[in-house]
Amino acid sequence: MPRKLLTNLTRRDALGSALIAGLASPAAAAKPNTGPNLSIRVEPLFPGLSLPAQLERTAAAGYRGFEFGEWRAQDAAAITKLKNRLGLTCVCLVGNRSVNPIGMGLCDPREREGFLAEIQASIEAAKRFESDKLVVLSGFKVKHLSRTQQHASIVEGLKRAAELASRASITLIVEPINTLAKVEPLNPTGNNHADYFLDRPREAVEIMREVDSPYVRILYDLYHAQIMEGNLIETIREHHSLIAHIHVGDVPGRHEPGTGEIHFANVFRALAEVGYEGFIGMEYIPSIDAMQTLAAAKAMAETAYIATKA
Q1: Does domain 2-309 correspond to CATH entry 3.20.20.150?
Q2: pLDDT digits (tens, 9 = 90+) for 23-50
Q3: Strand pairing partners for 66?
């Protein structure tokens, strides 16, 4: 089964095994990357390893950036020193903890001060990790408020947070998360975030326009967006100026590109065609060897970007 999955992945996008092997080699990893900016969300790709070990694997895979979860658990000085030695970018930190950040969500105005305090703390952390983006989560729906009231609360909260972020040249990237999947693959034993408020990219676009700040943008997670709305390429074409970060995971199961229904070669091509220069983050659970999947995904994205320049 693992061998069949890899064969399907490479055949679908015309990637020869020699190309994949070359990209996985240390010599290829050292070559300048003239294509997209690629990053790895390290926990699902390299589970069980320390963050320093995960950074080493990221560099070995030839990726430029990394993302991780809880910044409080890490030594910022040590991680920053290591990432600079490896030539990596800390792409983003999580600004308000989790999909359900109790006491610091955006939906309830009563949590506003807690939210802003957490964003300020994360801004200071971002400086220490030399990162310029913070992931922001709406939090779960609030029962005593209407959807219109919660939408308005999110807009007001982001406007105030943008004032803090702008002083530090930090961009807040707001993530829509699906509410339809029965299981969250990244946390299969936890809540599947069915009560998460901001579950559709189209509402995120509305929020961006209402907030009207260059320091507030969308984290467009292709896995979540495909489940809720699909229409990935048209969304990218129409709203790419509002998107500052991409997450990659196929549907169903949130495995590597080529294992599900998303035609990632075409999606990467659309990103290249609109001139997207932000990071594309691999946030999936590999169904086979992680380094093999990363090499294949990297080759696929680079092929798409190179093709648009030909």
Answers
A1: yes
A2: 333 333 334 445 899 999 999 999 999 9
A3: 40, 90
